[in-house]
Write a structure and sequence with these properties.
The chain is an alpha/beta fold. The protein is about 45% helix and about 10% strand.
Length: about 220
């Protein structure tokens, strides 16, 4: 029987779920070809937990993930030029708590998912796809303000919203479909180029964490 692999995901918000859920599913399918044991990838399970602190929320998410998945992806935007602050003050203390806990009903395979600045920086990885979705294929990246490295934008969400506004301004009134950034998360997640994402350092770190999870599950050989 072919093994089933299910990852769960907890995020900062519902729009993040739409993008990341699809990206994680597609990444697992892509990595499955590099694994020694054949497995089927099942849809990512979304977990929404409550708690007064980050650790409390993540422990609750870990409890929920235990019964429905093999690993838990924890999304937290860096809101900074590096992921160091989030790793030091949120992820590491939570991982320490997991190690110290005697609770046998916790998912202990954790995949930190930390984009530099915010998740929208990853959405800027594939500008060709983004431009097609906002009907701006004939406008240059420079004119749209999306010609720099995705992680170099201090506010990538505003960068995308501004690109949409520029694209709309180029249309006649008859052709002005009211596209908003909220419309893009799911479609970008399901279609964005994984190779383009792999050009982003924080995404490569995330992929390394996914590979580590697959190794812990005995599906991928250790280095």
């Amino acid at each position: 029987m072919i093994r089933q692999v299910i990852f769960s995901l907890t995020t900062e918000g519902p729009t993040d779920e739409k993008f990341l859920g699809n990206v994680i599913f597609r990444l697992l399918e892509d990595l499955s070809w590099k694994c020694e044991i054949e497995f089927d990838v099942y849809p990512v399970q979304i977990i929404r937990s409550k708690g007064d602190t980050f650790i409390e929320k993540m422990l609750e998410a870990s409890k929920q993930a235990f019964s429905i998945s093999d690993a838990l992806c924890i999304h937290n935007d860096a809101d900074d030029k590096t992921v160091n602050n989030v790793m030091q003050h949120k992820i590491k203390p939570f991982l320490d708590e997991i190690v110290a806990s005697s609770d046998n009903n916790l998912c202990r395979i954790i995949v930190p998912t930390i984009p530099v600045q915010m998740i929208e920086s990853w959405m800027l990885a594939d500008t060709q796809l983004l431009k097609s979705l906002i009907d701006a294929s004939k406008i240059s990246n420079r004119d749209l303000g999306i010609d720099k490295s995705p992680e170099s934008y201090s506010d990538p969400k505003s960068t995308i919203s501004n690109a949409i506004s520029i694209a709309l301004a180029e249309k006649t009134k008859r052709r002005r479909d009211q596209v908003t950034i909220s419309d893009l998360y799911e479609t970008l997640g399901s279609s964005i180029s994984l190779d383009a994402l792999r050009q982003i350092p924080s995404f490569r770190s995330f992929e390394d964490e996914v590979c580590n999870a697959l190794k812990k599950l005995g599906l991928m050989k250790p280095n």
